[in-house]
Amino acid sequence: MSLRTGTRGETVPPVPSAHAAEDTADRAPGVDIAALLERGRTMTAPVLRAAVDRLAPPMDTVASYHFGWIDAQGRPADGDGGKAVRPALALLSAEAAGAPAEVGVPGAVAVELVHNFSLLHDDLMDGDEQRRHRDTVWKVHGPAQAILVGDALFALAGEVLLELGTVEAGRAARRLTVATRKLIDGQAQDISYEHRERVTVEECLEMEGNKTGALLACAVSIGAVLGGADDRVADRLEAYGHHLGLAFQAIDDLLGIWGDPEATGKQTWSDLRQRKKSLPVVAALAAEGPAAARLGELLAADAKSSDVENFSEEEFAARAALIEEAGGREWTVQEARRQHAVAIEALDSVDMPGHIRDQLAALADFVVVRKR
């Protein structure tokens, strides 16, 4: 098959940088990415904590541990709560519609609640024992609590929006519900692909568009909807978020194989250990040549083995080398560039203040230049 490569977005470097925020600042003068992300955290944190406080014990404590507010013993902690890209996008979304950033806060909180619902369940389904350099909730508090708290966060997301009692809140809740359904579709596709020998590039992109793109698309439209934007504006912002999500996931797929565990907080070769059909793997298998053929043979044998987790580092490294030799790594880099370019193009069709567009463009750069 013919694999697409990017022709634009040349500001995106060929590999994730070890200095993401600094590099982005260099390429987007006047835009302070760290400040944008911190604003998202600062403005949403009180509302997010208040929502979590509504949960019955011990779910409130378990959720607080997941968010990094307390440690496993219940003591206050200053944990890494993630990159906060989605809250930053939701606040900028409101400003893109001409509303104050504060209007987007309920949307930002709702999206964060859904995102963390998915993380709690994903960690359990994938058997991941580490997230953000700490034991995952199911590892500390057990699978039952991970499931219950995830369900509770999903319910809270709708509550946070609908209690506003406005027409705009209803529209926002509908978009969030659709995005959540697509997210779940994507997770189901991801799991099913692990048990298949072959997955097409198109299937992989559809899965990643659902699993990652849908919620980012919602994040960057939900604030605008709460701010009174019509569906045309919200849809164009969603298009930016969807393609940004695909770029984000492409980089995530690269990090899932070649990322530094010290930066990602996950095991070496984490996606290979889980037999994930991520973009580098799928693109490599779709290529022609001896490396692709040998990779296909190894992965077909792996699918029938119950001992993949016990493979040596050398065995995983050999598979990663074949993926790179077959072109899967470079193709995924080019796909991240292409999706980044399409996301930026979508911004051009929205009438918004110039400085808001610049900030959205800078966040798009940041998403594809990162090490975790």
Automatic annotation (TrEMBL):
Q: InterPro entries attached here?
A: Isoprenoid_synthase_dom_sf, Polyprenyl_synt, Polyprenyl_synt_CS
Using the UniProt annotation, give all residue ranges assigned to the region (Disordered).
1-26
Transmembrane annotation, as ranges: none
Q: Which domain of life is it from?
A: Bacteria
Alphabetical keyword list: Magnesium, Metal-binding, Transferase
Coiled coil ranges: none
Please state which protein family the record places this protein in: Belongs to the FPP/GGPP synthase family.
Q: What is the protein name for this chain? A: Polyprenyl synthetase family protein
